[in-house]
Specification:
With about 290 residues, the chain is mostly helical. The protein folds into two domains: about 170 residues, Ribonuclease III domain (Ribonuclease iii, N-terminal Endonuclease Domain, Chain A, Orthogonal Bundle); about 80 residues, Double Stranded RNA Binding Domain. It is about 55% helix and about 10% strand. It has a three-stranded antiparallel sheet, with helices on one face.
Length: about 290
């Protein structure tokens, strides 16, 4: 059967259509290359190393379904889904992990987001576009997108990483998302990667773009919380790096009991403003999604 990429027009509901001509067969084929012969020792229930071919194949098939794309080069999808812990534990590092694809995907994502900002907001200066892009392309936002798409369940993790919650770790999820974009780009060019990025990023671009020029993000967020009777937003210092003269602070914003944006800055006030900015964007996206339901 001839392998073809799927037509990637958006459906009325906003999701990407999906057909699987031969995808299941290919999923089983490259699932087999991921499975390692079990050790003679007995492994307990829940040990990811007891995962069979059908389980691994299901991960690949589900990833293709979520992306709305059927890979012509199955090895690219396998590499994108492979965390270094899986490669190190089960294949002694011989199976490529998704680190290189993440590097490529980061550039693809930057390009598409920059294009969306440039074409849709012609009055924005380069500085304003840079601020919006930075608010979008970061670990917090990309992890949120990956969670929304339920892609974390498709990630191949080693036993240690699996047991410590690696399938929901923000760094792993952001890494996975960009690796998948890199794999899409190599398999089908921008034509393959663009619809996925547009689907996930368009509402976020518009939400963050509305905040341009309104620099006091903390006041904006406080006003929104007051109107919705959520109480005052709280800011928690969760990290500090570097020497005293070049310190970088990391702050997380909480609305009610829920954690939202994680911001960084050269001082605590700047980090709080960044966290508030990210939270405003996340709340705007959340509100739009609720309106669509």
């Amino acid at each position: 059967m001839k392998r073809r990429s799927i037509r990637r027009s958006r459906s009325a509901g906003g999701s990407l259509p999906f057909r699987r001509p031969g995808c299941t067969i290919r999923a089983i084929e490259f699932a087999a290359s991921c499975i390692v012969e079990p050790d003679r020792g007995v492994r307990g229930k829940g040990d990811p190393r007891t995962m069979g071919m059908d389980d691994v194949a299901a991960k690949f098939t589900e990833a293709e379904k979520i992306l709305g794309y059927c890979f012509k080069k199955a090895d690219l999808l396998r590499e994108a889904l492979t965390h270094r812990s899986w490669s190190n534990e089960y294949r002694a590092g011989k199976l490529p992990d998704n680190d290189r694809l993440e590097y490529l995907g980061d550039s693809v994502l930057d390009l598409v987001v920059a294009h969306l900002l440039f074409t849709r907001h012609p009055t924005f200066s380069s500085g304003e576009m840079t601020k919006v892009r930075a608010a979008l392309v970061n670990e917090t936002e990309l992890a949120a997108i990956t969670r929304e798409n339920k892609l974390g369940a498709c990630l191949l993790l080693g036993i240690g990483e699996e047991r410590t919650g690696g399938a929901d770790k923000a760094s792993n999820l952001a890494h996975l998302y960009e690796a998948l974009l890199g794999a899409l780009y190599l398999d089908g060019g921008l034509e393959a990667a663009w619809p996925v990025i547009a689907r996930d990023m368009e509402p976020r671009v518009e939400a963050h773009a509305r905040a341009v020029g309104q620099e006091d993000y903390k006041s904006q967020l406080q006003e929104i919380c007051a109107k919705r009777h959520w109480g005052l937003p709280q800011y928690r210092l969760i990290g500090r790096q570097g020497p005293d003269h070049e310190s970088s602070f990391t702050v997380q914003c909480f609305v009610g009991k829920s954690a939202y944006g994680t911001g960084e800055g050269r001082n605590i006030k700047a980090a709080e403003q960044h966290a508030a900015q990210l939270t405003l964007g996340m709340l705007a996206v959340q509100q739009e999604q609720e309106a669509d339901e």
